[in-house]
Amino acid sequence: MNNRESKNALAFLDSIVTAGGFSLRPPGYFTVNALRTLDMKLGKGKDVCATLSESAMKEQVHAFLFIQAAPLDTVSRAIRFYDRLVSPRGDAVPLSPDDAWDEFMIKFVDPFLAQIPPEGIAAAYEQLGTLDEADAAVVDAKPPADAGRERPDPNSLSQGGSPAE
């Protein structure tokens, strides 16, 4: 790992306290699942993000700030809210992902951002801009090469997996 990669990797370990006084949690498993559930384009690489309009990209960044800075119980409630809108239980009619996204932004993200002074948002943008290798951290999970082969039971006395004689 070169110096720049190391700096960016280490930046993910610490909370960032912005000028607005709120702190951004380091991205982790919760973040990845939130981005997937909300079908966000952030974290899917520069090519995907390049297809977004300026206003759509701004919404994505605002939602990311909400996910990383709002209280976890609020974020969890917001993500479940979105999920129930696109995949309702019972006979409820699902909303399109775009309509559910609008509801998510109006009900949760916009009120959260309204509490942050403009200099806090600007500082958060600046801090996020320092993570210039964030898109390189996109993980493409692949099964191990031997995933199709059956492994012998490590607790078995025989090597072939059949009962020992």
Description of the molecule:
With 165 residues, the chain is mostly helical. The protein has one domain (3-137). Helix 4 (54-69) packs across helix 6. The protein is globular and about 65 Å long. The longest helix has 18 residues, at 97-114. Strand 1 (16-17) and strand 2 (23-24) form a beta hairpin. It contains seven helices and two strands.
What's this entry about, in short?
This protein has 165 residues and is mainly alpha-helical.
Biggest beta-sheet profile = 2 strands, antiparallel
Helical residues, percent: 40-55%
N-C termini distance: 51 Å
Order of helices and strands: HEEHHHHHH
Number of strands: 2
Strand content: under 5%
- How would you write the strand order of the largest sheet? 1-2
Radius of gyration over all CA atoms, rounded: 21 Å
Overall pLDDT confidence: 77
- State the shape: globular
Number of domains: 1
Spans with pLDDT under 50 lasting ≥5 residues? 132-138
Class by SSE composition: mainly alpha
Number of helices: 7
Annotation keywords:
mainly alpha, 165 residues, 2 strands, two-stranded antiparallel ribbon, 7 helices
Task: Break the fold down into its secondary structure elements and pairings.
Blueprint: H1 3-11, E1 16-17, E2 23-24, H2 29-37, H3 46-49, H4 54-69, H5 72-86, H6 97-114, H7 118-129
Antiparallel strand pairs: 1-2
